[in-house]
Amino acid sequence: MRYIICEEPGTFQMGEAEMPTRSSNQALVKIHRIGICGTDLHAFAGNQAFFTYPRILGHELAAEVMEIDENDQGIRPGDRVGIMPYVHCGTCIACRSGKTNCCQNIQVLGVHTDGGMQEYITVPNELLLPAQDLEWDQISVIEPLAIGTHAIRRAAIQPGETILVMGAGPIGLGIMKFAQILGARVLALDINPDRLAYAKQYMGAAEVIDARENPVERIAELTGGDMATVVFDATGHPQALMSGPDYMAHGGRFVLVGLSKGELTYSHPAIHAKETTLMCSRNATKEDFERVMEVLRSGEFPVDAFVTHHAPFEEMIGVFDQWLDPKTQVIKAVVHMG
Predict the structure, then answer these.
(1) Is 16 helix (H, G, I), strand (E, B) or coil?
(2) Coil, helix or strand for 294?
(3) Which of 40, 59, 203, 260 could be a cystine partner for 177, CB 3.0 to 4.6 Å?
(4) pTM of the entire structure?
(5) Residue 118 DSSP symbol
(6) Across 291-307, average pLDDT
(7) What are the helix (H) ranges across 90-224?
(8) How many CB atoms lie within 10 A of CB 324?
């Protein structure tokens, strides 16, 4: 069985291993698609939090079940499945409260433990998502879209609200589209004009804003001085994370989806005056995954436009550097296995 491992920042190696063996509560699955996300890119670059090396990356997975025992979901060998990559303990306070996405002992595939950048893996049955009616590329984008869906649910967006999404990468774009589907008016903020144009064309952004050109004034102009009732950060960049409250309305919510390794500093009087609700959004729950699959089945999300780059497994190492380069205009890259 072939695998690709990130030995250290900047270094991938292909290797061979024995086929994994499953336990009675696990399925053996064959990986067909591996979505490449910001976590993978940051891990390769050496600036991803919660990360140790060497590590087999890959947590945006589309798979085929090869072996599985009788199970509550009725999944059988040969079925297509998505995979929730968050292995939770089930016993900590977060799990007991239904917040398995932030389990105290969480093990995320491809981050804390080896992921799906290999031909076969074993997965707990409870993490499988029946997806027989979806295409491989659709299945491969469920996880990143679930991240955005969870953030939207945390923010409790209402139809007609004006929201601002900072960062027009895959996570930010997903937030934009799913918020637009809910009836929100979406403002997109980024420094990349190509990403902003994409957000407006495909993701339902009503207005786009260049972060380098007086964004506070522009947002005030677009909102009649009210500013955005919800601001999402999907950049993980410290400067963006600390500027979010400047774009937020009084009584608004600021949702930190992107992750920075360092400390953040806010002016207490400034955030206090707005009675700011500051919240973080981490990973996603099964409810979020199911919502994404519902939207994918409806055809409301433009998967064909979202998945911009493909590569066979055998060629991934050679092209991965290109996916780090903004000039290649990658939105979502997907690796094909078999």
Answers:
(1) strand
(2) helix
(3) 203
(4) 0.95
(5) B
(6) 98
(7) 93-96, 136-140, 142-155, 170-181, 193-202, 215-222
(8) 12
